[in-house]
Amino acid sequence: MAIPERRTYMNFTKPYLQIPLVLVTRPNELFFSDIGSINDKKIAVIKGYAYGEILRVKYPRMQLVEVSNAKEGMKKVLYGEIFGFIDTLATSAYQIQKNYTTQLKIAGKFDEHWDLGIGVRNDEPLLFSIFEKAIESIDKLEHQKILNKWIALNYADNYRYKEFFWKLVALVIFLGLLIAYRQYALNKYNKKLEILSSTDKLTGVYNRLKLDEIMVYELQKFNRYKQPLSIILLDIDNFKLINDTYGHHKGDIFLQELSYLIQQNIRNTDCLGRWGGEEFLIILPHTDIEDAHKVAQNLQKLICEHQFSFISKQSASFGVVSVHLDESIDTFFERVDKALYTSKKLGKNRVTIDL
């Protein structure tokens, strides 16, 4: 469940399951249509659960007591230590059916739901996009029909515990199978689609379209968290001469070898892509201008010293910039392009930074 603290390091999909919160009491208590009015009684919630934080904000006067798990909370209600226990409809119904059929009951329902989505690390935008599409692919009307069919209860002493429990089991199994099938189908379909839409066919690194997408994401993260972000733009010196001398096929082989060399000498968190022709772009999250400069100098040296399959010596020119606060993506790329042009103008095979 998404809460502000978790959102600092994770992105959450739209909820795939919404389970109501309910109040469990002893059977002699009345049904409460407005749970927010219960301010003079002790109510238990499970420690660490997201909805506990939400309830504290919405009902600041409610006397909430933390318990380790549902069983502990219901025992405290049974023994009269507290008035009620708040948990999800699914968990409460299961515990009552299994252990407290005639001793406890559901005596009220909250407007809030336990909204369950899929949380993905915020440095994995592609994985987040896949999960988001998987959730969105479930037709909304179909989803609502499923929830309406299986999560439908009567809150009274004649509550049909056993019938609900088995329907809930069926719902869980059905949703599990549905999500598993959707994931399998998406994985199978998206593997080829992802390769075609996000990578350069020749070199296997990211294409320009994907680099643009990553840059937008990284800039948004930079503006939010103020963590350093730099890019390196490199251009192969005299690449036309390679094509003219050895032919375009050999030129393609050189690009493939160069891509592999660069990929093996940058971090896993860095993103390498073909910017166009003989130009390559490297996106370096959490990297200031000094460290980015060192990376570019190291790559410059590696390229000069590397023995390619049919060329004994080759060089490249580099432009390096670090993003400024509230800088647009267009300005960012204009500066790195200008830095690369300076390297070319000053004789090639060199690194230029733009502060």
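Above is the first protein from milestone M3; the second protein from the same milestone is given next.
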Amino acid sequence: MAEIKSISEIIEEISPYYRKLKEKKLEGVPAEEHKIIYDSTAETLEPVYFWIVDFMNDMFKKVEKLVDNFVSSPGSGHFAELGARATKMQEEAMKIMQTIGILVKSLVNIVYDLREFEIRLKHYDALHSKDEKEREAALLALKQIWMDNVDIKRGRGSINMLAQDLNFVTIRDAFMAVKSLEEVDKLDLNDRVKRILKARVKEFFDWLELSEKELRKRYEIERSYLKSQVNALRLYTRWAKPYLRAAAQLEMKEAGREPALVKAFSTILLELTLLGRSPIDVEQAIIDGDLPEAFRRIKFDRNYYSCVLVDFNFRGIPYRTPQGHYTFGGRVEVTFKAYALNDDELMLLDEKLKETELEEALKLVEGMTTESLEQLREDIEYFLKEPEKRELEEEKNKSQDVNPFAALFGFYNRNKKPEKKKDDKTKKIEELKEEGVRPDNHAESLLRKLAESGAKDKCFTIFDVYKKAHGMASHPAPE
């Protein structure tokens, strides 16, 4: 994915108003623009940047940083030091990620074990049911499990092998038919078969009682272990994210064929972009006489903002201080641009910025941590719930299924996964991506003109006050 270098180009692309002005090659893209170039190897970038940030914070409702990129020449000490820091962050992150991988694998195995336990426990639950048919079916299923897993260990002495190899053809059917030890004597069988059958039936009912207790105990132990593993995963995920995020943020952008960056020189290039915005107060604008009285009756579905975009392009030489930090002296070019944007344009601008390389790297971080267990999330939440709450929810889901045909064929809500609903913002972003931003109507065009006028004033004020505050020549106010 190509790196976005100009926020102005994005605004001109997504905004119908500025796109139209650009296509017709009219003035007003941006609404106003001023530039300051300050070149001094003795002065650093920080005072310039923070003076403008503080001034904008007093002037605008909201100020945010949109772009923060840097690249150092490979031959500089700054490049080597930041590269070493990034490598250290990556190594620490990967150590934690290896532990996370082990925990994820453990969780998968625990969930599968709990699912197997649950299937087995359903037979024991049915064995205590009030429905006689359910009890009979459960008893037959448990007898089959006992023969396949316990009795089979006797080898040729097992019930299956006795019926198959030693001509005890009736013993298997008799074992499946009896419901208690007393019923064995009532069967029409010879004494030889009864003697063998009594021992096996006694052994089965002893196993039935002990296995249920043991299985329920193991089920609860596995549930407790699942909870501890989930908590451990959350903890390790929280530890990993700062390292992964720091490693992504320490990555340098591609320099390309930038002539200011020479491999053997000690040079750094910085790109910073700030966006300040303040909404238009329609009620106050009517009171001030900037909008007609009829606007009180209009309900606008999107707000308009006076916006100022400040771009910092810095070329400097990194100097290492005795404290071990770096300071940067050099040439800084600050550009102030005025725009009038609405909610849709700002939302789409934010979404476009998320497609930059840094944001893509942070998405990978989320994929490695937060989203790694998305497929197991429902199973984990299911097993962590108390059995009583789980049964109430299942009963509620059954009662909500009022479709007689669904009930007839056995399609119940308990097997239906709830659809993941999209929030309003996500739906709006998808709509804007597909259809684009709706052009302004007549009333909105007046709001944009008012926002644009305010943006021009703010843009010039920042530019002019900065120059005066730093003893530079004053600039006449634009008409």
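Note on the second protein: The chain is about 55% helix and 15% strand.
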